[in-house]
Amino acid sequence: MSAFPIVETEANVTRQVMADHPELMVVTFAFGKEGAAGSLHNHPHVQSTYVAEGRFRFIIDDETFEVGHGDSFVIPSGAMHGCVCLVPGKIVDCFTPRRDDFL
């Protein structure tokens, strides 16, 4: 069980760090309502995303696609990205290196 707090990041979106190491971090994001969004942003970390529950529309740079339970993909370093929740659920993101701004 994670000792990290659950943090509200956007309306109807929470984040919880599950595990961290200077070279890797695992984070769960819970989307509690259709239409909840992860705002467009970028960062220097490589990000791997796994959809644990729900359905989401993602934007990565100029590409838009939908993903659901069991889908996964990688977001390159520096890519502009974000998502909109279509069916409430959870995603699990892994970052390398760790996102120190989440600690």
From TrEMBL:
Ranges where the Cupin type-2 domain occurs: 34-84
Coiled coil: none
One Pfam family it belongs to: Cupin_2
The organism of origin for this protein: Litoreibacter ascidiaceicola
Upper taxonomic lineage: Bacteria, Pseudomonadati, Pseudomonadota, Alphaproteobacteria, Rhodobacterales
Top-level lineage group: Bacteria
Protein name, UniProt field: Cupin domain-containing protein
